[in-house]
Amino acid sequence: MTKRKAAVLVSGSWGTALAAVLADNNYEVALWARNETQVDEINTLHTNSRFLKDAVLPLNITATTDMETAVKGAEIVLFVAPSSAMRDVAKLAAPYISEDAICIHATKGFESVTYKRMTTVLLEELPIKADRLVVLSGPSHAEEVVRKLPTTVVVASANVEAAERAQDAFITPYFRVYTNRDVIGVEVAGAIKNIIALGAGLTDGLGFGDNAKAALLTRGLAEISRLGNAMGANPLTFAGLAGVGDLVVTCTSKHSRNWRAGSMLAEGLSLDEVLSRMGMVVEGVRTTSAARELAHEYGVEMPITEQLFAVLFQNKSPRSAVESLMGRGRTHETEDLPGV
Fold this sequence. Notes:
By secondary structure, the protein is α/β, with parallel strands linked by helices.
């Protein structure tokens, strides 16, 4: 079988895990990184120990710091940069993207300051139209994907053919891929669930038990649906893999950076201390600010997001934030949800 080329930008844990999936699907994968030491490790030892400690990577993954080498000739270009770096990475890649390439992103967040979704950012910077752009999301920890544990995700695009090309590129016996047309819903769900995961870490760290976490997930899903509906999403998306599926795994797993960050905040650490100890991007922190602004813009209530913003940026104690949520005025459970 003739091997095809895929480019993966950048080489964090999720990018590396998805590069391994593409490599298992007979792609020659060029993995772009900024760090020369990391590139050397991937190319000589076939490991990426900073991000995926015990994983051995397929031999048909080659790392490089040169963007032209990574992207030129690739039929699949996968962007897995942090939301804060997505625009800069897209600008670097844009001159080398082939006319018939499919561009996919797997980043769960909004751009800082502009609060734009990642597909919007990519469309502004890449020489492609929306019908060649796909978003990949769903319940999928990199640590499990790289071990080939059963995982199921969704790829969404305005163009069915583009979504199916992405589906074919990634689907393997251990990595099942569904298609969806709701780009907005998939992106909003993937971003906002990180906020709820911060809250889950807080409640667990405070020892509030399973009842509190179940309530947080349920009301968190209501916030995701509320904002997503206002932004034009399909409500059914939030009952699927990108919605409740990703919400559950991110709020309950030891692999979740956002859960761990919330748990450390509950221990009394400052946000700066938490981020320093994590050593990796915690998307939920930036997303909390973005979601709060979007909620104000679209006129929807997001009380969990508001309280987490107060904890992260206004020095409110986690316990006081939970008390504020529990003490809110009486309301109907489903009165402001789409379709009710």
